[in-house]
Fold this sequence. Notes:
Blueprint: E1 11-15, H1 20-31, E2 35-40, H2 43-53, E3 58-62, H3 68-82, E4 87-90, H4 105-133, E5 136-141, H5 154-174, E6 179-186, H6 195-199, H7 203-208, H8 218-229, E7 240-243, H9 256-266
Amino acid sequence: MATAGRFTGKVAIVTGGTSGIGEATVKLLVAEGARVAIAARRQELGDALVKELGADKAIFCKTDMASKTDIEALFAATVKAFGGLDILINNAAQSCFGATPDLDPAAWHQVIATNLDAVFYTARLAIPLFRQRGGGNIVNVASISGQFADYGFTAYNASKGGMINYTRCLAIDHARENIRANVICPGLVETPMSAVIGEMGLHDTWVEAIPMGRGGTSEEIAKVIAFVASDDASFMTGSAIVVDGGLTAASGQPNLPKIMARMNQGG
């Protein structure tokens, strides 16, 4: 249950904020008192979300997170509308498929620019604004794919791995300034971005590997983000928080009890 007023008086930027985890996070922050600048590429979705939330509580900035110029415009618009910044949530992401010999270098650079370079550019702009407020909070949304390897997702995994360690660098470099930085590492979340798994007929296979037997919801991830961004997590910085239904708690060995049960049924 949301804690009313937890973000009263706070200003946040949420990238990738018009769908999935980003949209759920925007709605939760606003519900708890924040004013939010929403960054994404789809103007119609952004306009609809601002209309739903109220123009006094949210603005939309059409932003390509691979563009340094767009990111600078996002921050300028946020300061103009709300007077400063307290919370930065980097959620925008892009992926591509391909092992290294088969991967188009342009695709590699696009993923790295969106998922990793953008986190550097946003942090570089956010930290001076945080200093003006006496502190601030960065929450980056990476993935369990930044902690471990996945077949064929070379660029995505590299970008998310870089995000995790870069977040740790931010945390230690700015801890004495009352600036916290943490990273959330979700597993499978039922979002439009992950819908391709279902389109490929692989959803059941994916879910079977998760001990909880399901993917997460955007709202579940948003609640973790909000906790980490709030004063409830005031002594937490440099942490990588896994939210994956238990998937990475397993060693990767075969599920022997399940195999034995199937063998017994077959016998």
